[in-house]
Amino acid sequence: MATEQPQLSLHGSCHCGAVRLTLPNPPEEATDCNCSICRRIAGLWAFYECGTVIIEGHPENTAEYIWGDRTLRTVRCKICGVPTHWEPLTPKPGEKHGVNLRNFESKLLQSVCIRKFDGADTWTYMK
């Protein structure tokens, strides 16, 4: 008799709950980037096609930060300040955005292969 695996929750939120995220499916991997912003906010990014993640409380409860080449915005809750995701300023069909997995239960994080990305220097995966 097969044992059932516990179902991982695909629902997450910022600290205060004003921004809620629902993933379409569990991520297989996540990216831990060391660029100047990612290392400061400790983002752990799973990538999904734009429009496939349900984001409630956005944009009314969020603030954005746009910098560099001005192609994407990093989004945070404007109440508690927790970064929730990043998205392209003008998404094209099939383009992806990043969801900060730190807003989800630790069980979900434990099920994901985490890849280190050198966004600070070489712009390549380290392993």
Structural features, described:
It is a single chain. By secondary structure, the chain is mainly β. It has one domain: Metal Binding Protein, Guanine Nucleotide Exchange Factor, Chain A (Beta Complex). Helices cover 7% and strands 39% of the residues. It is built from 2 helices and 11 strands. The chain has helices at 38-41, 106-110, and strands at residues 11-13, 20-22, 29-33, 45-49, 54-56, 62-66, 72-77, 83-88, 96-100, 113-118, 124-125. It has a 5-stranded antiparallel beta sheet, with no helix packed on it. Strands 1-2-5 form a 3-stranded antiparallel beta sheet, with no helix packed on it. It has a 3-stranded mixed beta sheet with strand order 3-10-11, with no helix packed on it. Strand 10 (113-118) and strand 11 form a beta hairpin. The protein is globular and about 35 Å long. The mean pLDDT is 93.
- CATH fold label: Metal Binding Protein, Guanine Nucleotide Exchange Factor, Chain A
Count of distinct structural domains:
1
What is the CATH C-level name? Mainly Beta
Enumerate the strands of the largest sheet in spatial order, edge to edge or round the barrel. 4-9-8-7-6
pLDDT averaged residue by residue: 93
Largest sheet: 5 strands, antiparallel
End-to-end Cα distance, whole Å, is 38 Å
